Amino acid sequence: MGKVTAAITGVQGYLPETVMTNDDLAKIVDTTDEWITTRTGIRERRIMKDGASSDMAAAAIQQLLAKKGIDPLEIELVICATVTPDYPFPSTANVVCDKVGMKNAWGFDLNAACSAFIYALSTGSQFIETGRHKKVIVVGVDKMSSIIDYQDRTTCVIFGDGAGAVLLEPNEEGLGVQDFILRSDGSGRQYLIQPAGGSACPPSHQTVEERMHFVKQEGKQVFKFAVTNMAEVSAEIMEKNNLTSDDVNWLVPHQANLRIIDATAERMGLSKDKVMINIQKYGNTTAGTLPLCLWDYEKQLKKGDNLILSAFGGGFTWGAVYLKWAYNG
């Protein structure tokens, strides 16, 4: 019996129907299509008009299970990566399990901002590797429109709504998650934060009036940290696993800013044709970006392909996962 690894055996995304273009944003805030595109690479994003994060996550998981021909009762664990839970409690994972009918599963939410999916993927893989579970769902979902201030052009142009889910199952062929490096630095929290709503600053008339329940970002500081750390951790995981740029088939980068993506690929020595990019269509869906990339590019993936997933998020949090793709798209 070979070593058991956790392999992604299926992926599915879900996107709301409503499209908000840069021109649409220009009608409600002082910006232009050119200003947004040149600074971020984003041309449009999806916005969920009605419903919650759990609705997007449930839709993605339902379609994934249908595609795989798996009964919801077979799922044993659901990890929901999100920064926009339905409620402070119960967890969105609990709500999703109920909506999908995964009655035999336990679950929990994982909050690591834009790095949440790789944190959750790394966590979920441990339950497979130890033999504790055979079928684990990791879903990244965020309804960022629920915490975005559409009077603040520094943040409202960046984010969108969406969800992506993957199924993890045991593999003995040497495929699946090979390694991960995860990092955090809480001293950067003030640069990318939702200031109010937690125990440090509970809701009040004042916090609402001062618009403190929306995302606040100091773009220059975040960009400086992100462009350095996301690139460095991606190169580090390559070096740790003796991978050259020729060995890497795909970089799956967090879709926050095209310049950060380009800098990461350059640091890894990768050409643009090896980089998954859909930021122009969806913007930054936070925990949803990486699984949505895998979903968009699924048909191009081949069994045995070497993938590096890389992300940077508020906290600060960052990291990279090295995995071998387990099936032909």
Provide the CATH superfamily of the largest domain.
Answer: Thiolase/Chalcone synthase
Work out the number of β strands.
13
- Can you name the CATH architecture of the largest domain? 3-Layer(aba) Sandwich
Average predicted local confidence, pLDDT: 97
SSE order: EEHHEHEHEHEHEEEHEHEHHHEE
Radius of gyration: 19 Å
| Largest sheet composition | 5 strands, mixed
Structurally, how many domains make up the residues?
Answer: 2
The SS-based structural class is alpha/beta
Question: What is the percent of helical residues?
Answer: 25-40%
List the helices and strands and how they pair.
Layout: E1 5-14, E2 18-21, H1 22-26, H2 33-40, E3 44-47, H3 53-68, E4 77-81, H4 92-100, E5 106-110, H5 116-129, E6 136-143, H6 153-156, E7 161-171, E8 176-184, E9 192-193, H7 205-209, E10 216-217, H8 219-240, E11 250-253, H9 258-268, H10 279-282, H11 289-297, E12 306-313, E13 317-324
Parallel strand pairs: 4-5, 4-6, 11-12
Antiparallel strand pairs: 1-7, 2-3, 6-7, 8-13, 9-10, 12-13
Helix pairs in contact: 3-4, 8-9
Can you give keywords for this protein?
single chain, 329 residues, alpha/beta, Peroxisomal Thiolase, Chain A, domain 1, 2 domains, 5-stranded mixed sheet, 4-stranded mixed sheet, 33% helix, globular
